[in-house]
Amino acid sequence: MDHDTRLSGLPAPPPQGAAALPPGTYDGTLVLVTGGGTGLGKAIAAEFARLGADLVIASRSEDHLRPAQQELGTRVTAAVCDVRDPARIGALFDACPLPDVLVNNAAANFPVPAEDMSAHAWRAVVDITLTGTFLMTREFGRRHLAARTPGSIINVGASYAWTGGPGYAHSAAAKAGVRNLVETLAVEWGPYGIQVNGLVPGLMPHEDMTADIRGTLEHAADQDRRQPALRVGAPRELGWAATFLASPYARFITGHTLVVDGANWQRRALVGPPVVPVRDQMGRDPFTG
Ligand code: NAP
Question: Which pLDDT score, from 0 to 100, does residue 213 have?
Answer without folding.
Answer: 66
